Amino acid sequence: MRANRVKVVFSAHESVAVEHEGVVQDVRVSPGSAYLMGTSATRLQRVREHSDTLDMYPDLELLIAEAEARGLPRFAIEPTMGAAPTPAFDVHPTFLGLAHRFRQACMGAVALSDIEASTLACRAVDAILSLHGAGRKVKTTGKLDLRRLRAVCDCVEANLARKLSLPHWPRSAS
Fold first, then answer.
1. What pTM value is reported for the model?
2. 11 and 87: one domain?
């Protein structure tokens, strides 16, 4: 399975085997559980029941830039499966909420606007970074000074023909 993703499981599993870096562990999975996969992919084995899941692949460029802004240089996603045994995957309310909304969009039940999809992606980045000890956001004053306002206007003018989303804004304007 692909690396650098968040997997949210909507179905319950009393015990599945999860292989990570050659180590196989039995794990209990509650509905709404989420787990992260780092650069080494994780593989599920012995899944006895139907499994209803959603995989989310964060924008790594956005994730790394935001990690650096929060004081985490050379950021990489730390997998839920580490060296110590993991008896169960935890329910993570933010990932569960994001996954439900993305799932609705994938199934055609809702259409996400560009700004909504961009906002959800930024919330996913916040949730991942909070699990890595970088839950604090970069401090802002709550208003733009003239330099930052000019940077926002320049970005909009330079991209008038494109759809813009939150990750496109220049760092100096945030």
1. 0.69
2. yes
